[in-house]
């Protein structure tokens, strides 16, 4: 009899490893089906040993070891894939089974378990691993990748281009696959199951060198790729949004190293972490790392406060200028020329928050305490206003559709603060009532297909205006004129990479705007806007690294965030226990306790580790031992 230790390949496993017995020995790395409570789940074998040496321990055990129910083991992943997944799980403080599940398409996993796919062949590559980088516009990068693919095909070498989103897969495969359509394979999460299996099998069977463009889940295709390209490296879509919290960029690099492939990292602006590695000589140039982005777009930076000051001095009125003189001129000129205009704002609704003019209190959701957002609700007879909570979905119509009292002092002097796209729509409707307008945000487009439909209608219409949140930008092909009405509120989000995100957003708008790009900002520090508009990539990277170094943020340190959700008293007591449990690592418990729907409270603990002090085997064991209600994130985007 054999004692088999396995890692369940399932979300929410109570333990990272479970023990079973089997009649026959099973090789490490094989996948079996084991009973967990009342169901059967796949699990990967971590250890297999003869039970004869553990008889005394088994007899004295206070629990019974169950038998593996389906003993026909299967090999699903190559050794290189498993090694990469284990390294990624260790760095991310996640369980191996959950990590494997996050890195494997369900269609492929199920097909292997059902015997519809052959076991992967062990490919001896002997390739040389190195990391190269390219920084430049999308056009420049794709031209470089086209040359790479053609040269690789001449040498009979296959290439995998890994991108973060489905839209990237569609666009990149279309551009790079021109002329080699028969040897180009595209894979993403929206691909139908039948087509995924067909594409997977065809890619394995093709004896010719191939190009695969896909998201990170599909890089496990068991075929050797001499070169792996990781494009759009700056995108926040590389980090998973639910458990297990892992950075897919790290897995791709680990996989390239384990399989002996060359890794090429590309982006319009490379991350600060990548620039630091370039400076240390750990990453070389694949193509020229541009220090400046060159675009023909005319750029304008406007501070509406100057116009507001002029109005106040001349009339004595205190009016907020939403559409500046320069923007009105841009709209008028675009209308005369029959051009389209994109108006961008970071927030939905009329105003992101409502405050009391008497006591300063915020109007908050009674269910989860999140600030309520004023939205415009269109009806057949008239437009009404409603309060909507973006946290739990709570909706309330103000009294008589107009009046609302302060929850703190009972006063009537409530006012909306900030700029939402509904407020912009009202202003544009008053200025240009005959101009066709389209609005795109998360409320108007619940699905990607709905969002694409709105963008397609806008791109077909002349002299039209699209008022949108940043979700519209990846879907746009090109637009003649763009104006950022307000994104200042993004700086208030406690995201350590927010500057990179805003900088990359402006760079992308420069690429997609053929005429004029105008930015309105009330920020006192406009360096990031000026650098983005002038395309000063190197200066921005230097400034960002200096800031990271001052606060010991990555790459100069490692941040671990532990989040607990539950009832208020339980959260407080458990956090105190956790503080004692991790006392050797100087934990910082954040003082604020955010309330979620149904009286569920959320609290965070932060661990800041010195550079090169992670992964730490002792701390890793402690983090993996935490109950399921704790969520662990390594180098999170935000700290609260």
From TrEMBL:
Keyword annotations of the record: ATP-binding, DNA-binding, Nucleotide-binding
Signal peptide extent: none
Gene3D superfamilies in alphabetical order: P-loop containing nucleotide triphosphate hydrolases, PriA, 3(prime) DNA-binding domain
MF terms in GO: 3'-5' DNA helicase activity; ATP binding; DNA binding
Superkingdom as given in the UniProt entry: Bacteria
UniProt cross-references to InterPro entries, sorted A to Z: P-loop_NTPase, PriA_3primeBD_sf
GO biological process annotation, one example: DNA replication initiation
Name the UniProt record assigns to this protein: Primosomal protein N
Species per Swiss-Prot/TrEMBL record: Candidatus Yonathbacteria bacterium RIFCSPHIGHO2_02_FULL_44_14
Lineage, uppermost ranks: Bacteria, Candidatus Yonathiibacteriota
């Amino acid at each position: 009899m054999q004692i088999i230790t396995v890692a369940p390949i399932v979300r929410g496993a109570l333990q990272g490893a479970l023990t079973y017995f089997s009649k026959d020995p099973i090789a490490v790395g094989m996948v079996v089906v084991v009973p967990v409570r009342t169901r059967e789940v796949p699990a990967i074998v971590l250890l297999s040993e003869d039970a004869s040496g553990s008889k005394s321990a088994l007899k004295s055990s206070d629990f019974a070891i169950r038998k593996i129910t389906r003993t026909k083991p299967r090999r699903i992943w190559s050794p290189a894939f498993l090694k990469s997944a284990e390294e990624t799980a260790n760095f991310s403080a996640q369980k191996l089974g959950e990590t494997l599940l996050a890195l494997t398409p369900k269609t492929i996993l199920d097909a292997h378990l059902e015997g519809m796919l052959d076991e992967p062949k062990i490919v001896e590559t002997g390739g040389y691993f190195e990391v190269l980088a390219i920084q430049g516009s999308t056009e420049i990068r794709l031209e470089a990748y086209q040359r790479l693919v053609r040269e690789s095909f001449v040498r009979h070498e296959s290439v995998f281009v890994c991108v973060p989103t489905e839209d990237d897969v569609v666009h990149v495969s279309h551009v790079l696959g021109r002329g080699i359509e028969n040897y180009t394979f595209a894979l993403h999460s929206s691909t139908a199951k039948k087509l995924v299996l067909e594409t997977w099998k065809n890619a394995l069977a093709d004896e010719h060198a191939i190009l695969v463009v896909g998201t990170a889940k599909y890089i496990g295709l068991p075929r050797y790729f001499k070169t792996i390209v990781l494009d759009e490296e700056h995108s926040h879509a590389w980090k998973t949004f639910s458990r297990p919290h892992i950075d897919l960029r790290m897995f791709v690099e680990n996989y390239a190293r384990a399989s002996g492939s060359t890794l090429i990292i590309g982006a319009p602006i490379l991350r600060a972490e990548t620039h630091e590695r370039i400076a240390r000589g750990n990453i070389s140039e694949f193509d020229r790392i541009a220090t400046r982005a060159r675009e023909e777009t005319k750029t304008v930076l406007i501070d509406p406060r100057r116009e507001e000051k002029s109005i106040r001095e001349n009339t004595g009125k205190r009016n907020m200028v939403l559409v500046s003189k320069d923007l009105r001129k841009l709209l008028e000129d675009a209308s005369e020329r029959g051009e389209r205009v994109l108006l961008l704002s970071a927030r939905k609704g009329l105003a992101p928050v409502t405050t009391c003019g008497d006591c300063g209190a915020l109007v908050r959701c009674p269910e989860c305490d999140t600030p309520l957002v004023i939205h415009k609700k269109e009806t057949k007879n008239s437009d009404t206003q409603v309060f909507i909570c973006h946290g739990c979905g709570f909706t309330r119509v103000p009294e008589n559709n107009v009046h609302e009292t302060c929850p703190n002092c009972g006063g009537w002097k409530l006012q909306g603060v900030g700029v939402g796209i509904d407020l912009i729509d009202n202003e544009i409707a008053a200025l240009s009532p005959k101009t066709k307008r389209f609005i795109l945000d998360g409320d108007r487009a619940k699905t990607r297909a709905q969002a694409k439909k709105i963008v397609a209608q806008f791109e077909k219409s002349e002299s039209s205006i699209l008022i949108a949140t940043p979700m519209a930008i990846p879907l746009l092909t090109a637009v003649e004129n763009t104006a950022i009405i307000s994104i200042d509120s993004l700086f208030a989000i406690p995201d350590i990479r927010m500057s990179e995100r805003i900088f990359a957003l402006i760079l992308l708008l420069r690429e997609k705007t053929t005429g004029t790009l105008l930015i309105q900002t009330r920020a006192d520090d406009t360096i990031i806007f000026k650098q983005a508009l002038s395309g000063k990539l190197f200066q921005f990277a230097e400034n960002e690294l200096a800031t990271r170094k001052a606060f010991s943020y990555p790459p100069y340190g490692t941040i671990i965030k532990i989040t607990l959700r539950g009832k208020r008293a339980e959260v407080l007591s458990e956090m105190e226990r956790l503080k004692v449990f991790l006392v050797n690592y100087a934990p910082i418990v954040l003082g604020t306790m955010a309330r979620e729907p149904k009286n569920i409270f959320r609290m965070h603990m932060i661990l800041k580790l010195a550079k090169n002090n992670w992964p730490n085997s002792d701390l890793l064991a402690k983090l993996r031992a935490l109950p399921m209600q704790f969520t662990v994130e390594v180098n999170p985007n935000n700290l609260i």
